[in-house]
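User: Quick sanity check before I run a bigger batch. Here is a single chain. Can you write out its predicted 3D structure?
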Amino acid sequence: MAAIEIKDTKNNVVGSMELSARFALEGKGALMHEAVVCFLANQRQGTHATKTKGLVSGGGRKPWKQKHTGRARAGSSRSPLWRGGGTIFGPQPRDYSYELPKTARRTALFAAISRKIKDGELHVVDGIRLEKPATREMAAILKNLGLSGGSTLIVLSEADRSVLLSARNIPGVDVVQSKDLNIYEVAAHNGVLATKAAMEALEARPL
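Assistant: Done. Predicted structure follows.
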């Protein structure tokens, strides 16, 4: 068990929150790496394609007769050895996706969050309340918490249109709901700003 401070949007400590052992995982570097590689592989479209000699247009006619020309034998002008010919062993459309066990994915996620907590890169606030979208107000909140100037991931317990619209124009700032949080987003951002409700939702997620 470990405790983490809860602050308001002006960086004043307003309380603390007890976290379970899942937020104190260590020694999971290999698993976190594998989870990130898996996530990135699943994002690949795999639509790359090159033409083999059978797909390149033309070349149906034998360039010259087989014998008595003094030249090498040739059956098609679209041979990979010729200019304008096909490609040998070029990339073809394929599916790069694969799945890790659910327990491994969740363990990797909590290990990444544990690393953020250990490095002091996770900040918990009691809530982010904006009456209407205002990029200036969101930028001020990030500055108050020492999160301006770098990439920041804002984690909410549920969708908030005002927060989303206020943050989307700030470079390097992304917003995600706790139910959609994945290890790549945690690892790709320098800092994580989570609401207390979002942390409680993560706490309730099965490991």
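The mean pLDDT is 92.

User: Great, the batch can go ahead then.
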